[in-house]
Amino acid sequence: MTDTLTAPAPTPQRPRDRDWWRQASVYQIYPRSFADANGDGIGDLRGIIDRVPYLQTLGIDAVWLSPFYPSALADGGYDVDDYRDVDPTIGTLEEFDELVAALHAAGIKVIVDIVPNHTSDRHAWFQEALAAPKGSPARDRYVIRDGRGEDGELPPSDWESGFGGPAWHPMGDGQWYHHYFAPEQPDLNWANQEVREDFLTTLRFWSDRGVDGFRVDVAHGLAKDLPEQLPTHAELLALEAGTGEHPMWDRDEVHEIYADWRQVLNSYDPPRTAVAEAWVATPERRARYASPQGLGQAFNFDLLEADFDATAFREVVTDNLAQAAASGSSTTWVLSNHDVVRHPTRYALQGKDTAASADVMVRFANEWLRSGGTTPAIDPQVGARRARAATAFMLALPGSAYLYQGEELGLEEVAAIPQDRRQDPTFLRTGGEQIGRDGCRVPLPWSTTGPSYGFGSSAAHLPQPESFGAVSVEAQSGDPEAPLELYRRALALRAQLQTDEELTWEPAPEGVLHFSRPGGWHVVTTFGTEPAELPAGEVVLTTRPLVDGRLPGEATAWVRTAV
Predict the structure, then answer these.
(1) Is the pTM of this model over 0.70?
(2) Locate the Glycosyl hydrolase family 13 catalytic domain: which residues (predicted)?
(3) Which of 217, 407, 413, 438 is the catalytic position?
């Protein structure tokens, strides 16, 4: 028996090009680790401009740029000094304009990261707040509370930062500012109208420069309502999420903010897109961020967090297509990004005897990272097979596919980074207890040799392993068995075969998933080691060679059948 799932079709009266984002292939660039044109060890805008032909031949629809704003890099650029400028180490506004023009000329849209939950402690507003007295308008822009004790010498509560250590930092006069992340990232007060207006100005600033959309960092964290008597950290963690009334996260009034954003985004022709990074308790809560009255789309990380397992993958796809139908949006699919262990390594770790929880496995695989990638021993070939199969499965799904730089090279997580070279504040603030995200942010290898394998003319800001030369763009280009050429073929076919946002589950044996899309596009994935039969038709893509006409284990095939 078949089971057809349908996401809503684009609104009929709107031209198709306005809905380009609904089933786009989006490639995330972490600018400091993509390509270094000036040889200072840090990636830059000129490096991206030089690589636009590569991005074009990859076959993507859009580029998402992680933060490139002025920053002290307390959190990899997510501590923003100025939301309407470019960090001098990365480039200039003129180069940004040149990059947008080059990408648009190549048929590639541009999405930029916006970080509204907090500024950096070097931001002009925060410097003004430090110099201003208690109760001043400058201080009202941030989440600031009086300290406890006779002179406010104690923090307002015992809350802990998500990066480790206390979540309150003294301002020197008995008041403390809140920072959920690093101390260099003071949280903004979104009840302040000036804060709201300034970010609308930022949206217009980049939209006027030709940006096609925005990725919204910590989108669920903006609205806060801290009671006069703050709960303890334990009490805060115990508060029920998903009610819209949590003091810190996913409050209902956050959608008032995004309704104002949507008005600005819709004032452009075509309207600018937006996608929320929103970690929420239920699918229904996520759908509100993705509504046409809000940001329009929201990341779901369910596939990223799932084991390489047929039942888990089917449940994730079924649930998220239903969510998309409910919200009027299209769903999103992600397997890797700048915050998580790369998926070839995650899949190689799956099933190993580690004490890490599933959440830690996904986010940091922390025990394995702490060992420098030696314990437990893993089979990278298993991880590579599963990653290729999962990627081909994901690229065939209705909705938007978000790819992270380097996954097209099959890059694994880099675990063996010397402690004195690590940059992630999680590592620094937990004393190495949490290793952090440096391993997925190691600069890309472009050539087989050189001090940074073609990333630049000098050593990279994070050390690359010797194995990078063999998996570089130069080494893989033209090799039909290489991950790079698989991604190129898959993305080209995805563009040719893409059709209505509809999926039908077809009968399949245990451990195998088989779905079809309108137009005769069939996709079969084997999650176990047993081979599977394929439907009759033209096999246009496989992640492993067929054996006697059958799809081997841990593989995906795309088949075009007669309609």
Answers:
(1) yes
(2) 28-441
(3) 217
